[in-house]
UniProtKB/TrEMBL annotation:
Residues 43-62 are annotated as: Disordered. This is DUF305 domain-containing protein. The chain crosses the membrane at residues 20-41. Residues 43-54 have a biased composition (Low complexity). It comes from the Bacteria. The keyword Transmembrane helix applies. Residues 64-236 form the DUF305 domain. Keywords: Membrane, Transmembrane, Transmembrane helix. InterPro entries: DUF305_CopM-like, Ferritin-like. Pfam families: DUF305. It comes from Streptomyces gelaticus. The keyword DNA-binding does not apply.
């Protein structure tokens, strides 16, 4: 994502060298920013030192909690792919896109994990990924949300791909082995599919989640990732390629 969620995708110009100095440390710091912020807000004292309880605490099987858990996993792979392509190409346009995606999604992942910490809910469950998108959560139904009905039940995890859009272990190995234009095209194709899956989940939360801040974040994800999809379509075309068929 580029800049603020929901903002227009700025034109990427290959005139600026993307410096990833201490990139891993930056992303890790963003990754835990949400968790650290929530922990600080809680306080460790009593009385006036203790933060007021959240006005609404979602249940462990709610759409709010399910989206936070699943999107945190989904985002983590986007960060991983972006760091892989950083080392596999010198193309400034692709490296800048990857840098923006890594930073934005690591930051959002920290927020999602922070909410789970605030709600005192587990960050992983034994349930089916995206099961929260099925009908019946908190009086809502996923049916009718841009054709997303049943999205949480029809996907079969395979080769490390747990949710729609996620790359498989085999595909990640291919990305690690590629270089130059081949790595750029493969990254853009994998990230295109990844964004499509992420948009589907975000639309699900926008319709099913009940925590206002989380619904706003989900809507912002839809807008920003759709803008990035449009940008990646152009980047693929410029490299004589198209989305994965």
């Amino acid at each position: 994502m580029h800049g603020r969620a929901g903002g227009a995708v700025r034109e990427v110009k290959p005139v600026r060298r993307v410096e990833w100095v201490a990139g891993s440390a930056v992303v890790l710091a963003l990754l835990f920013a949400g968790v650290a912020t929530v922990a600080s807000a809680r306080g460790d004292g009593s009385g006036a030192d203790r933060a007021a309880p959240a006005p609404h605490t979602p249940a462990v099987d709610s759409a709010d909690a399910g989206f936070a858990r699943d999107m945190a996993v989904h985002h983590q792979q986007a960060v991983e792919m972006s760091f892989i392509v950083r080392d596999r190409t010198k193309d400034e346009e692709v490296r800048l896109l990857a840098y923006d995606i890594a930073n934005t999604q690591a930051n959002q992942r920290g927020m999602l994990l922070g909410w789970l910490d605030l709600w005192e809910l587990p960050k992983a469950t034994s349930g089916q990924p995206m099961g929260w998108m099925t009908a019946g959560h908190e009086g809502h139904s996923a049916k009718g949300m841009d054709g997303m009905e049943g999205m949480g039940t029809g996907y079969r995890a395979h080769d490390g791909s747990l949710m729609p859009g996620m790359a498989t272990r085999t595909e990640l190995d291919r990305l690690r082995s590629a270089s130059g234009r081949a790595a750029e095209v493969l990254y853009l194709r994998l990230m295109t599919e990844h964004h499509k899956g992420g948009i589907g989940m975000a639309r699900g939360c926008a319709g099913l989640c009940t925590v206002p801040a989380e619904k706003r974040l989900a809507r912002g994800m839809v807008e920003a990732q759709q803008s990035e999809l449009d940008a990646m379509t152009g980047m693929l075309a410029a490299r004589g390629a198209g989305p994965r068929s």
